[in-house]
Design brief:
This protein is mostly beta strands. It has a domain of 43 residues. The protein contains 1 helix and 6 strands. β3 and β4 form a beta hairpin. It is globular, with a radius of gyration of 13 Å.
Length: 74
């Protein structure tokens, strides 16, 4: 039995669309501080590149859901 795909609810700040994204449609960047930790995706409705801050809880949810993670180094 194949594992169930994890989907995340998201919204576009530009066109205000609400949608679900698969884990492979999201990128997570973890920086040295909370200010440099964020996740990003492209809105499937309008094509806008969206970048939002990711606090500790969001990082846990995204990494637990299989989102590809990039660690930023200074």
């Amino acid at each position: 039995m194949a594992p169930t795909a994890v989907v995340f609810k998201a919204a576009c700040p530009d066109c205000r669309a609400r949608f679900e994204l698969a884990s492979d449609a999201i990128r997570l960047a973890i920086g040295a501080s909370e200010r440099t930790t964020f996740y990003s995706f492209t809105c499937p409705d309008c094509g806008t590149a969206v970048r939002k801050p990711a606090g500790e809880r969001i990082v846990e949810l995204l990494t637990g859901g299989g989102v590809r993670t990039l660690r930023l180094h200074h």
